[in-house]
Write a structure and sequence with these properties.
Keywords: Membrane, Transmembrane, Transmembrane helix. This protein has about 80 residues and is mostly helical. It has three helices and no strands.
Length: about 80
Amino acid sequence: MLKDILNNIQKKSLKERFLLVLGILFFLIYLVLGLMIMFWEKLPLNMEPKYRYAFGGLLIVYSAIRFLRLINSNTE
């Protein structure tokens, strides 16, 4: 399975590989930002804890959606 994924990535053009790396980077950025908002107490956001958790959760869900779209576009 991993061999098929690597072969699929190697068949892509340079532009498609760059966009894949960029997609993975932004997935990680949104995931880490969501976790930071939820769990980093000293982050200078004047929000109630329930809104911090809601906003962090929303960012994590958005990162999951981006990841699923990235995986689905990678299989083509």
